[in-house]
Write a structure and sequence with these properties.
The chain has a domain at about 1-70. It has 2 helices and 2 strands, in the order H-E-E-H. The protein has a two-stranded antiparallel sheet. The protein has helices at about 10-20, 65-85, and strands at about 40-45, 60-65. Helices cover about 30% and strands about 10% of the residues. With about 100 residues, it is α+β, with helices and mostly antiparallel strands. The chain starts with 9 loop residues before the first helix and ends in a 22-residue tail after the last helix. It is elongated.
Length: about 100
């Protein structure tokens, strides 16, 4: 969501810089330096969608390198995709109503 107006706000830009300084311009997961231009990602630990009340809380931010940020987003997408694929009844049909096989046309 980098194109979202929130990410252009002065409040976000100032808080983002505070997070980068707090984390010494290094990925909090792997330790890689993110000081080079275009390498830093500041991630909401709990998403803005899930916890909008924490979107400007320093404690809800972490610095990530591009590799770790991409892994995190890939993991989120996989978790969301898997959520409707878990569980099946005795006949092999998925138990989740969200599964595509259980949706009505």
């Amino acid at each position: 969501m980098p194109g979202h107006p929130f990410y252009q706000s002065d409040a976000w830009k100032a808080l983002r810089l505070r997070a980068l300084r707090r984390d010494h311009w290094a990925c909090t997961l792997c330790g890689t330096s993110v000081a080079a231009r275009g390498q830093s990602r500041v991630d909401h630990i709990q998403s803005r969608t899930a916890r909008p009340d924490l979107e400007l809380e320093l404690s809800n931010l972490r610095t990530l390198c591009p590799t770790c940020d991409n892994r995190r987003h890939a993991s989120d997408k996989a978790d969301a995709a898997d959520a409707h694929m878990r569980g099946a009844n005795a006949d092999g049909w998925p138990t989740s109503r969200a599964h595509p096989w259980n949706r009505t046309r």
